[in-house]
Amino acid sequence: MLLSAIAIAYQARKIFARFFTLFTILIILIFIQTYLINNIIEDEFYILIVSILLVRAIIGRYVMAMRVALYTVIASLMFFNSNLFLIEQYNIINIVLDSIIIFLTILLFEIYEYSYYRINKTKDIAIPAILSLAFQSPYMFVLPILQGFIFAIFNLPIQIYGPLASFVYLLNYFILIYIFKINYIFLFVFINIFLFLVAYFVFSKRIAYRSLSPPVGWLNSWLGGKYYVEDVVGVGGFSYVLKVSAGRQKFAAKVLRYVDDRGAPLASSWDVIKIFGQEMNRYLEVLSDYVVKAYEVSIPSTEYRSLSDYMRNPPYMILEYMEGGSLREYLIEKRALSLDEFFRIFIQILKGLNDIHKNNLVHLDIKPENIMFKDREKAVVKIGDLGIAKLAVGKAVAASYLSPAYAAPETLYSQTASKASDIYSLGCVMYESLTGINPQSFVVNGYEIPPPDRYRPEIPSWLSGLIMSMLSPRPEARPTAEQILRIFENYISGAGVPQ
């Protein structure tokens, strides 16, 4: 029990990050108490208490059920200890230690709030879990159940760690039997392995969410029963972006929020869910090497009755995972792009936008945050987040969800948009990428936008003029994505410099 408790404490150091000092004190006191009273049943009580605390920290649900379980274990421990006291196996030191242990246990349980924490699955979960199994006492049946549960929650591959856990069990019992000459029934080895495996398979891929706090409530759980949620990538006004995995493949999951920042219904409205499904399914039709690939759209069959229903099965879309981050992050780092980088990046963006427009779609949210790099070297660039893209009907389409810092004048004032609106937004991004200044800052203050070559004389005059034409307040005066792309291709190929 002694060494096993230390391994469990190490495993819990990140899970109990905010209250780790209290948890460490609790484990030390249990360590001392176990040393004073060497009793198998006492060990089981302590491991049960630690197990309930760990489950409480990992799962932010079923609090009342876990509270009942905890107080039942504490009452049983107190009853057992009173019997030990009556037969004079307990002294005042044990009573004081148990009182402090019980107090800290209740305090940790009641003050703990579900929080975000990063876990290295091998270092923080697998290694200390196997160590705790290796040092457990023969009759500690609670521990393999706890570790099987933790292995399942944090998606540790059972084909690797299952045999390893079985091996450390056998090694532990071999040492106890043949070196320390401890006698016990060898059947317990197989009972412990069986309990470990049963706990693993009972909980594996069955935890849809761990708390009612989106998006962190999905961490280390299973989206749609298929995608393991590894991290929260970002939070937008209308969606959460999660990093998920299926086997060895990594994806991004875009999840429609239950409500927006102002409390207005999103996924909590059936009408919004239907629109989300329609728009996302149109996204699947866009086949381009320069647009973030979409693989799957999942929409509930009925409207949600509660937040827990939403957490269990939210509306989501599975997208290509863009490991290199966004243009926004890159601009924060670089402030402004060199001309070579500018042409390399934006010719790919233009190809993507041209493909979107060929599908008779307008993006409506072109901004640095939605321009993504596929790789860390930032060689491959793609347009992402067609979440509010609308099917163009005729020449214009209603635009209800916009980023004002990059939105065209007609979308801001008349609430209509066309493909030319995307050209204006792209012009804003180009201007900002070259100068570090968002041209909308001039527009909203009533000033005329100065040409970008005024800030950087090395910008070719033809490029400065092209960007200014993209920023024209009149949609019909802006060039198309195809026209701009042709100009860029001619310049890069050396076929001719526009005049």
What descriptive keywords fit this protein?
single chain; 499 residues; alpha+beta; Phosphorylase Kinase, domain 1; Transferase(Phosphotransferase), domain 1; 3 domains; six-stranded antiparallel beta sheet; two-stranded antiparallel ribbon; 12 strands; ATP binding; nucleotide-binding; Kinase-like_dom_sf
Describe what you observe in this structure:
This protein has helices spanning 2-11, 20-36, 40-58, 63-86, 92-111, 121-134, 142-153, 158-178, 187-203, 270-283, 307-312, 327-334, 339-358, 409-413, 419-435, 440-444, 461-470, 481-493, and strands at 222-223, 227-235, 239-246, 249-256, 294-298, 316-320, 361-362, 371-373, 381-383, 390-391, 397-398, 416-417. It is an alpha+beta fold and 499 residues long. The protein has three domains: 2-203, no CATH class; 223-320, 2-Layer Sandwich (Phosphorylase Kinase, domain 1); 327-493, Transferase(Phosphotransferase) domain 1 (Transferase(Phosphotransferase), domain 1, Orthogonal Bundle), CATH 1.10.510.10. Strands 1-2-3-4-6-5 form a six-stranded antiparallel beta sheet, with helices on one face. The protein is elongated, with a radius of gyration of 30 Å. It starts with a helix and ends in a 6-residue tail after the last helix. Mean pLDDT is 87; it is low at 391-395. Belongs to the protein kinase superfamily. NEK Ser/Thr protein kinase family. NIMA subfamily. It holds the Pfam family Pkinase.
Short description:
The chain is α+β, with helices and mostly antiparallel strands. Helices cover 51% and strands 10% of the residues.
